[in-house]
Amino acid sequence: MATAIVAQLDFSDTDGQARLRAVGSWTVRTVGNLEPSIDKAISDVSGATVIDLSGIEHIDTAGAWLLTRLHRGLSAKEGDVSVEGASENAQRLLDALNPTERETPPPPPQIGAAQELVEAVGRTMYFSWQDLLAGLNILGGVTRGLARAIRHPARFRITSIIFHIDRTGLRAVPIITLMSLLIGAIIAQQSAFQLRAFGAEIFSVDLVAILVLREIGVLLTAIMIAGRSGSAITAEIGSMKMREEIDALSVIGVDPVEVLIMPRIVALIIALPMLVFLADIAALVGGGLVSWVYIGIAPEAYIDRVRDAVALNTLFVGLIKAPFMALIIGIIAASEGLSVRGSAASLGQHTTAAVVKSIFMVIVVDGLFALYFAAVNY
Amino acid sequence: MAEPLNGHGSEREVVISGRGITVGFGDRLILENLDIDVYRGEILGVVGASGTGKSVLLRTILGLQSKRAGSVEILGTPYDDADADTRASIDRRLGVLFQQGALFSSLTVLQNVEFPMREHLHLSQRLMDELARVKIDLVGLAPEAADRMPSELSGGMIKRASLARALAMDPAIVFLDEPTSGLDPIGAAEFDELIATLRDTLGLTVFMVTHDLDSLHTVCDRIAVLGERHVLIEGTMQDMLDFDDPWVQKYFRGVRARRVENEV
Question: Would the pTM count as exceeding 0.80?
Answer without folding.
Answer: no
